[in-house]
User: What shape does this take?
Amino acid sequence: MGGGIVPAREIVDPLFAHGFILQGIGKPVAFVALDWCEVRNGAYELFRDKFAKAVGTDPVRVMLCCLHQHDAPIADLEAQQLLEKHRAKGAICDIPFLEKTASHVADDAEDALKDAKVVTHVGTGEAKVEKVASNRRYTDANGRVQYNRVSATRDPKIRDAEEGTIDAFLKTLSFWNGDTPLLGLSAYATHPMSYYGKGGVSADFVGMARRRRQADTPKVFQMYASGCSGNVTAGKYNDGDPANRAVLADRMHAAMAAAWKATKKTPVKEVAFRSVRLSLEARSSTGFSEEELTKRLKDDPKPFGQCLAALGLSWKKRVDAGRPIDLPVLDFGGAVLAVLPAESYVEFQLAAQEQRPESFVLVAGYGECGPGYIPIERAWKENDGNLADWCWVNPGSEKRMTDAIGKALKN
Ligand SMILES: [Zn+2]
Assistant: This one.
Protein backbone atom coordinates (compact mmCIF):
# COMPACT_ATOMS: atom_id res chain seq x y z
CA MET A 1 0.00 0.00 0.00
CA GLY A 2 1.07 3.60 -0.61
CA GLY A 3 3.87 2.46 -2.93
CA GLY A 4 5.63 0.37 -0.31
CA ILE A 5 4.84 2.24 2.94
CA VAL A 6 3.35 -0.89 4.50
CA PRO A 7 2.01 -4.24 3.23
CA ALA A 8 -1.75 -4.86 3.45
CA ARG A 9 -2.69 -6.94 6.49
CA GLU A 10 -6.47 -6.73 6.57
CA ILE A 11 -9.34 -5.23 4.62
CA VAL A 12 -11.10 -2.75 6.90
CA ASP A 13 -13.53 -1.76 4.17
CA PRO A 14 -13.51 -2.65 0.47
CA LEU A 15 -12.14 -0.41 -2.29
CA PHE A 16 -14.22 0.45 -5.34
CA ALA A 17 -13.87 1.69 -8.89
CA HIS A 18 -16.84 3.94 -9.64
CA GLY A 19 -17.51 5.56 -12.97
CA PHE A 20 -19.78 6.55 -15.80
CA ILE A 21 -19.63 6.28 -19.56
CA LEU A 22 -21.24 9.02 -21.61
CA GLN A 23 -22.33 8.09 -25.13
CA GLY A 24 -23.62 10.22 -27.99
CA ILE A 25 -20.74 12.70 -28.23
CA GLY A 26 -18.59 10.92 -30.77
CA LYS A 27 -16.77 8.00 -29.21
CA PRO A 28 -17.76 7.36 -25.57
CA VAL A 29 -16.16 9.40 -22.80
CA ALA A 30 -15.63 7.66 -19.48
CA PHE A 31 -14.84 8.94 -16.02
CA VAL A 32 -13.41 6.47 -13.51
CA ALA A 33 -12.64 7.24 -9.86
CA LEU A 34 -10.61 4.52 -8.19
CA ASP A 35 -10.17 3.96 -4.45
CA TRP A 36 -6.44 3.53 -4.97
CA CYS A 37 -3.62 5.76 -3.89
CA GLU A 38 -2.14 6.22 -7.36
CA VAL A 39 -1.96 4.74 -10.85
CA ARG A 40 1.15 5.80 -12.69
CA ASN A 41 2.91 5.68 -16.06
CA GLY A 42 2.61 2.25 -17.75
CA ALA A 43 -0.02 1.15 -15.23
CA TYR A 44 -2.14 4.21 -16.10
CA GLU A 45 -1.86 3.31 -19.78
CA LEU A 46 -2.67 -0.33 -19.10
CA PHE A 47 -5.79 0.65 -17.13
CA ARG A 48 -7.03 3.12 -19.75
CA ASP A 49 -6.23 0.78 -22.66
CA LYS A 50 -8.25 -2.09 -21.21
CA PHE A 51 -11.12 0.21 -20.28
CA ALA A 52 -11.17 1.94 -23.68
CA LYS A 53 -11.15 -1.37 -25.52
CA ALA A 54 -14.05 -2.68 -23.43
CA VAL A 55 -16.31 0.32 -24.06
CA GLY A 56 -15.23 1.05 -27.65
CA THR A 57 -13.35 4.30 -27.28
CA ASP A 58 -9.84 5.80 -27.33
CA PRO A 59 -7.70 5.64 -24.15
CA VAL A 60 -7.44 9.45 -24.10
CA ARG A 61 -11.23 9.56 -23.54
CA VAL A 62 -10.95 7.55 -20.33
CA MET A 63 -10.69 10.14 -17.55
CA LEU A 64 -9.07 8.00 -14.87
CA CYS A 65 -8.30 9.34 -11.41
CA CYS A 66 -7.56 7.97 -7.96
CA LEU A 67 -9.00 9.10 -4.63
CA HIS A 68 -5.50 8.81 -3.14
CA GLN A 69 -6.18 6.99 0.11
CA HIS A 70 -2.73 5.99 1.39
CA ASP A 71 -3.97 2.66 2.80
CA ALA A 72 -4.59 1.50 -0.76
CA PRO A 73 -2.45 0.31 -3.69
CA ILE A 74 -0.13 2.31 -5.91
CA ALA A 75 0.40 0.82 -9.35
CA ASP A 76 3.49 1.50 -11.45
CA LEU A 77 4.57 -1.18 -13.90
CA GLU A 78 8.09 0.00 -14.73
CA ALA A 79 8.94 0.83 -11.12
CA GLN A 80 7.92 -2.63 -9.95
CA GLN A 81 9.78 -4.27 -12.86
CA LEU A 82 12.93 -2.35 -11.91
CA LEU A 83 12.69 -3.48 -8.28
CA GLU A 84 12.28 -7.08 -9.42
CA LYS A 85 15.12 -6.81 -11.92
CA HIS A 86 17.50 -5.63 -9.18
CA ARG A 87 16.09 -8.11 -6.65
CA ALA A 88 15.39 -5.21 -4.29
CA LYS A 89 13.61 -5.74 -0.97
CA GLY A 90 11.15 -2.93 -1.69
CA ALA A 91 7.88 -3.71 -3.50
CA ILE A 92 5.31 -1.30 -4.91
CA CYS A 93 2.62 -3.47 -6.45
CA ASP A 94 1.62 -6.94 -7.54
CA ILE A 95 1.55 -6.76 -11.36
CA PRO A 96 -0.79 -9.77 -11.90
CA PHE A 97 -3.21 -8.20 -9.37
CA LEU A 98 -3.08 -4.89 -11.26
CA GLU A 99 -3.83 -6.65 -14.57
CA LYS A 100 -6.64 -8.65 -13.03
CA THR A 101 -8.21 -5.58 -11.41
CA ALA A 102 -7.99 -3.49 -14.60
CA SER A 103 -9.63 -6.34 -16.59
CA HIS A 104 -12.33 -6.73 -13.95
CA VAL A 105 -13.17 -3.00 -14.02
CA ALA A 106 -13.16 -2.99 -17.84
CA ASP A 107 -15.49 -6.02 -17.99
CA ASP A 108 -17.92 -4.37 -15.58
CA ALA A 109 -17.83 -1.18 -17.65
CA GLU A 110 -18.72 -3.14 -20.77
CA ASP A 111 -21.67 -4.70 -18.92
CA ALA A 112 -22.79 -1.26 -17.73
CA LEU A 113 -23.29 -0.16 -21.35
CA LYS A 114 -26.33 -2.48 -21.56
CA ASP A 115 -27.96 -0.41 -18.83
CA ALA A 116 -27.51 3.00 -20.49
CA LYS A 117 -29.98 5.74 -19.65
CA VAL A 118 -30.76 9.04 -21.37
CA VAL A 119 -29.32 12.14 -19.71
CA THR A 120 -31.54 15.18 -20.29
CA HIS A 121 -30.20 17.54 -17.61
CA VAL A 122 -26.99 18.28 -15.79
CA GLY A 123 -27.23 19.38 -12.17
CA THR A 124 -24.71 21.48 -10.26
CA GLY A 125 -24.60 22.14 -6.53
CA GLU A 126 -21.99 23.10 -3.99
CA ALA A 127 -21.63 23.46 -0.24
CA LYS A 128 -18.95 24.61 2.15
CA VAL A 129 -17.23 21.81 4.03
CA GLU A 130 -16.78 22.64 7.70
CA LYS A 131 -13.54 21.72 9.46
CA VAL A 132 -11.95 19.15 7.17
CA ALA A 133 -9.30 20.68 4.89
CA SER A 134 -6.23 22.74 5.75
CA ASN A 135 -3.08 23.59 3.85
CA ARG A 136 0.19 21.99 4.90
CA ARG A 137 1.59 25.52 4.78
CA TYR A 138 0.90 27.96 7.61
CA THR A 139 2.66 30.82 9.37
CA ASP A 140 3.81 30.06 12.93
CA ALA A 141 3.74 32.31 16.02
CA ASN A 142 7.16 33.73 15.07
CA GLY A 143 5.89 34.70 11.63
CA ARG A 144 7.83 31.91 9.91
CA VAL A 145 6.32 29.94 7.06
CA GLN A 146 6.04 26.22 7.88
CA TYR A 147 5.05 23.27 5.70
CA ASN A 148 4.79 20.57 8.35
CA ARG A 149 1.05 20.03 8.84
CA VAL A 150 0.28 16.43 7.89
CA SER A 151 -2.91 14.32 7.72
CA ALA A 152 -2.69 13.45 11.42
CA THR A 153 -1.17 16.43 13.26
CA ARG A 154 -0.46 15.78 16.93
CA ASP A 155 0.97 19.18 17.92
CA PRO A 156 -1.93 21.43 19.03
CA LYS A 157 0.06 24.59 18.14
CA ILE A 158 0.23 23.44 14.52
CA ARG A 159 -3.47 22.56 14.51
CA ASP A 160 -4.34 26.01 15.90
CA ALA A 161 -2.58 27.80 13.05
CA GLU A 162 -4.54 29.31 10.14
CA GLU A 163 -6.28 27.05 7.62
CA GLY A 164 -4.19 28.40 4.74
CA THR A 165 -5.12 28.14 1.05
CA ILE A 166 -7.88 25.60 0.40
CA ASP A 167 -10.96 25.33 -1.80
CA ALA A 168 -13.69 25.46 0.85
CA PHE A 169 -16.42 24.05 -1.41
CA LEU A 170 -17.47 20.51 -2.15
CA LYS A 171 -19.02 20.35 -5.60
CA THR A 172 -21.57 17.83 -6.85
CA LEU A 173 -22.21 17.33 -10.54
CA SER A 174 -25.31 15.25 -11.32
CA PHE A 175 -26.95 13.66 -14.34
CA TRP A 176 -30.71 13.55 -14.64
CA ASN A 177 -33.35 11.95 -16.81
CA GLY A 178 -36.14 14.53 -16.56
CA ASP A 179 -36.96 14.70 -12.86
CA THR A 180 -35.16 11.47 -12.05
CA PRO A 181 -31.61 11.83 -10.75
CA LEU A 182 -29.27 9.15 -12.11
CA LEU A 183 -25.85 9.95 -10.73
CA GLY A 184 -24.04 12.35 -8.40
CA LEU A 185 -20.31 12.96 -8.53
CA SER A 186 -18.99 14.90 -5.53
CA ALA A 187 -15.46 16.23 -5.20
CA TYR A 188 -13.52 18.06 -2.53
CA ALA A 189 -9.84 18.98 -2.32
CA THR A 190 -8.19 17.24 0.60
CA HIS A 191 -5.92 14.29 1.21
CA PRO A 192 -8.58 11.76 2.26
CA MET A 193 -6.83 10.25 5.28
CA SER A 194 -7.68 10.27 8.97
CA TYR A 195 -4.86 7.86 9.86
CA TYR A 196 -2.89 5.32 7.85
CA GLY A 197 0.12 3.08 7.72
CA LYS A 198 -1.07 0.30 10.01
CA GLY A 199 -1.90 -2.16 7.24
CA GLY A 200 -5.68 -1.78 7.20
CA VAL A 201 -6.96 -1.34 3.62
CA SER A 202 -9.61 1.38 3.63
CA ALA A 203 -11.36 4.00 1.51
CA ASP A 204 -11.15 6.12 4.70
CA PHE A 205 -13.50 8.96 5.65
CA VAL A 206 -14.44 9.93 2.11
CA GLY A 207 -15.44 6.31 1.41
CA MET A 208 -17.52 6.31 4.60
CA ALA A 209 -19.29 9.53 3.62
CA ARG A 210 -19.93 8.22 0.11
CA ARG A 211 -21.40 4.98 1.48
CA ARG A 212 -23.79 6.95 3.68
CA ARG A 213 -24.83 9.18 0.76
CA GLN A 214 -25.50 6.05 -1.27
CA ALA A 215 -27.72 4.70 1.53
CA ASP A 216 -29.60 8.05 1.67
CA THR A 217 -30.35 7.94 -2.08
CA PRO A 218 -30.54 4.26 -3.11
CA LYS A 219 -31.64 5.03 -6.68
CA VAL A 220 -28.89 7.57 -7.41
CA PHE A 221 -25.37 6.30 -8.07
CA GLN A 222 -23.13 8.30 -5.72
CA MET A 223 -19.49 8.79 -6.64
CA TYR A 224 -16.64 10.74 -5.09
CA ALA A 225 -13.36 12.13 -6.41
CA SER A 226 -10.54 13.92 -4.60
CA GLY A 227 -9.73 17.41 -5.88
CA CYS A 228 -6.18 18.75 -6.27
CA SER A 229 -4.83 18.37 -2.77
CA GLY A 230 -1.11 17.70 -2.95
CA ASN A 231 -0.67 20.38 -0.25
CA VAL A 232 -4.01 19.95 1.56
CA THR A 233 -4.77 17.54 4.42
CA ALA A 234 -7.19 17.18 7.34
CA GLY A 235 -4.28 18.05 9.69
CA LYS A 236 -5.76 21.14 11.31
CA TYR A 237 -8.81 19.13 12.40
CA ASN A 238 -7.29 15.74 13.01
CA ASP A 239 -4.83 14.53 15.64
CA GLY A 240 -4.87 10.96 14.27
CA ASP A 241 -7.26 9.50 16.85
CA PRO A 242 -9.03 6.63 14.99
CA ALA A 243 -12.37 8.03 16.24
CA ASN A 244 -11.85 11.03 13.94
CA ARG A 245 -12.44 8.92 10.83
CA ALA A 246 -16.18 8.92 11.53
CA VAL A 247 -16.17 12.60 12.57
CA LEU A 248 -14.53 13.69 9.30
CA ALA A 249 -16.93 11.39 7.40
CA ASP A 250 -19.89 13.14 9.09
CA ARG A 251 -18.65 16.54 7.93
CA MET A 252 -18.12 15.33 4.36
CA HIS A 253 -21.52 13.66 4.34
CA ALA A 254 -23.20 16.87 5.55
CA ALA A 255 -21.59 18.82 2.69
CA MET A 256 -22.57 16.17 0.11
CA ALA A 257 -26.20 16.35 1.28
CA ALA A 258 -26.16 20.17 1.28
CA ALA A 259 -24.61 20.33 -2.21
CA TRP A 260 -27.31 17.96 -3.46
CA LYS A 261 -30.01 20.12 -1.92
CA ALA A 262 -28.56 23.21 -3.60
CA THR A 263 -28.57 21.55 -7.04
CA LYS A 264 -29.70 23.55 -10.05
CA LYS A 265 -30.59 21.70 -13.24
CA THR A 266 -29.86 22.80 -16.80
CA PRO A 267 -30.93 20.98 -19.99
CA VAL A 268 -28.06 19.27 -21.80
CA LYS A 269 -27.30 21.00 -25.07
CA GLU A 270 -23.82 20.74 -26.49
CA VAL A 271 -21.25 18.55 -24.82
CA ALA A 272 -17.58 18.73 -25.78
CA PHE A 273 -14.58 16.61 -24.86
CA ARG A 274 -11.09 18.07 -25.11
CA SER A 275 -7.72 16.82 -24.04
CA VAL A 276 -4.52 18.84 -23.90
CA ARG A 277 -1.06 17.30 -23.80
CA LEU A 278 1.11 18.40 -20.92
CA SER A 279 4.88 17.89 -20.70
CA LEU A 280 6.59 18.24 -17.34
CA GLU A 281 10.34 17.91 -16.93
CA ALA A 282 11.94 15.14 -14.88
CA ARG A 283 13.60 16.47 -11.73
CA SER A 284 17.28 17.19 -12.23
CA SER A 285 18.43 18.35 -8.78
CA THR A 286 21.00 16.43 -6.71
CA GLY A 287 19.85 12.90 -5.92
CA PHE A 288 17.54 12.62 -8.92
CA SER A 289 19.87 11.77 -11.80
CA GLU A 290 19.47 8.34 -13.41
CA GLU A 291 22.77 7.20 -11.86
CA GLU A 292 21.85 8.40 -8.38
CA LEU A 293 18.37 6.92 -8.49
CA THR A 294 19.69 3.59 -9.79
CA LYS A 295 22.27 3.49 -7.02
CA ARG A 296 19.60 4.26 -4.42
CA LEU A 297 17.32 1.57 -5.84
CA LYS A 298 20.09 -0.99 -5.29
CA ASP A 299 21.70 0.34 -2.09
CA ASP A 300 19.12 2.15 0.04
CA PRO A 301 18.91 0.17 3.30
CA LYS A 302 15.21 1.02 3.59
CA PRO A 303 12.91 -0.91 1.24
CA PHE A 304 10.66 2.19 0.91
CA GLY A 305 13.71 4.22 -0.15
CA GLN A 306 14.28 1.68 -2.93
CA CYS A 307 10.63 2.13 -3.96
CA LEU A 308 11.00 5.91 -4.09
CA ALA A 309 14.01 5.55 -6.38
CA ALA A 310 12.11 3.12 -8.63
CA LEU A 311 9.15 5.51 -8.88
CA GLY A 312 11.51 8.34 -9.81
CA LEU A 313 13.20 6.22 -12.47
CA SER A 314 9.87 5.14 -13.95
CA TRP A 315 8.81 8.77 -14.40
CA LYS A 316 12.25 9.75 -15.76
CA LYS A 317 12.15 7.00 -18.40
CA ARG A 318 8.69 8.11 -19.43
CA VAL A 319 9.79 11.74 -19.83
CA ASP A 320 12.91 10.65 -21.77
CA ALA A 321 10.67 8.61 -24.08
CA GLY A 322 8.62 11.76 -24.80
CA ARG A 323 5.29 10.50 -23.47
CA PRO A 324 3.32 13.56 -22.27
CA ILE A 325 0.40 13.58 -19.81
CA ASP A 326 -3.20 13.96 -20.98
CA LEU A 327 -5.24 16.70 -19.35
CA PRO A 328 -8.87 15.87 -20.22
CA VAL A 329 -11.98 18.04 -19.88
CA LEU A 330 -15.65 17.17 -20.32
CA ASP A 331 -17.47 20.41 -21.06
CA PHE A 332 -21.24 20.89 -20.72
CA GLY A 333 -20.97 24.67 -21.11
CA GLY A 334 -22.29 25.72 -17.72
CA ALA A 335 -20.59 22.76 -16.05
CA VAL A 336 -17.12 21.39 -16.62
CA LEU A 337 -15.39 18.25 -15.34
CA ALA A 338 -11.58 18.26 -15.50
CA VAL A 339 -8.95 15.75 -14.38
CA LEU A 340 -5.56 17.15 -13.39
CA PRO A 341 -2.49 14.98 -12.86
CA ALA A 342 -0.83 13.60 -9.76
CA GLU A 343 -0.49 15.48 -6.47
CA SER A 344 -1.22 18.88 -7.99
CA TYR A 345 -1.31 21.62 -5.39
CA VAL A 346 -4.77 23.09 -4.70
CA GLU A 347 -3.81 26.35 -6.42
CA PHE A 348 -4.16 24.52 -9.77
CA GLN A 349 -7.77 23.61 -9.00
CA LEU A 350 -8.43 27.27 -8.15
CA ALA A 351 -6.68 28.29 -11.39
CA ALA A 352 -8.94 25.95 -13.38
CA GLN A 353 -12.01 27.55 -11.81
CA GLU A 354 -10.66 31.02 -12.57
CA GLN A 355 -10.42 30.11 -16.25
CA ARG A 356 -14.20 29.77 -16.40
CA PRO A 357 -15.71 32.09 -13.77
CA GLU A 358 -19.17 31.79 -15.34
CA SER A 359 -19.13 27.96 -15.22
CA PHE A 360 -19.25 25.34 -12.48
CA VAL A 361 -15.82 23.68 -12.70
CA LEU A 362 -15.44 20.38 -10.86
CA VAL A 363 -11.80 19.30 -10.71
CA ALA A 364 -10.56 15.82 -9.87
CA GLY A 365 -6.89 15.50 -9.02
CA TYR A 366 -4.69 12.39 -9.06
CA GLY A 367 -5.11 11.58 -12.76
CA GLU A 368 -1.78 10.36 -14.19
CA CYS A 369 0.25 10.20 -10.97
CA GLY A 370 3.76 9.81 -12.44
CA PRO A 371 5.08 13.28 -11.45
CA GLY A 372 4.35 13.02 -7.69
CA TYR A 373 3.86 16.47 -6.13
CA ILE A 374 3.27 19.23 -8.67
CA PRO A 375 3.94 22.38 -6.64
CA ILE A 376 3.54 26.05 -7.38
CA GLU A 377 6.78 28.06 -7.63
CA ARG A 378 6.32 29.67 -4.21
CA ALA A 379 6.70 26.26 -2.55
CA TRP A 380 10.16 25.82 -4.09
CA LYS A 381 11.19 29.32 -3.03
CA GLU A 382 10.00 28.69 0.54
CA ASN A 383 11.73 25.29 0.77
CA ASP A 384 8.51 23.29 1.21
CA GLY A 385 9.87 20.22 3.05
CA ASN A 386 7.32 17.96 1.37
CA LEU A 387 9.29 18.37 -1.85
CA ALA A 388 12.41 16.66 -0.49
CA ASP A 389 11.04 13.51 -2.12
CA TRP A 390 7.89 12.28 -3.91
CA CYS A 391 8.32 15.13 -6.33
CA TRP A 392 9.90 14.14 -9.61
CA VAL A 393 9.38 17.35 -11.60
CA ASN A 394 11.55 20.45 -11.92
CA PRO A 395 10.73 23.99 -10.88
CA GLY A 396 8.90 25.67 -13.75
CA SER A 397 6.02 23.19 -13.66
CA GLU A 398 3.57 25.87 -12.53
CA LYS A 399 3.70 27.69 -15.86
CA ARG A 400 3.44 24.46 -17.85
CA MET A 401 0.41 23.45 -15.77
CA THR A 402 -1.41 26.80 -15.96
CA ASP A 403 -0.80 27.00 -19.74
CA ALA A 404 -2.28 23.51 -20.24
CA ILE A 405 -5.20 24.24 -17.89
CA GLY A 406 -5.90 27.45 -19.83
CA LYS A 407 -5.98 25.57 -23.16
CA ALA A 408 -8.08 22.68 -21.83
CA LEU A 409 -10.68 24.89 -20.18
CA LYS A 410 -11.04 27.27 -23.17
CA ASN A 411 -14.52 26.92 -24.69
ZN1 LIG B 1 -0.37 12.11 -0.90
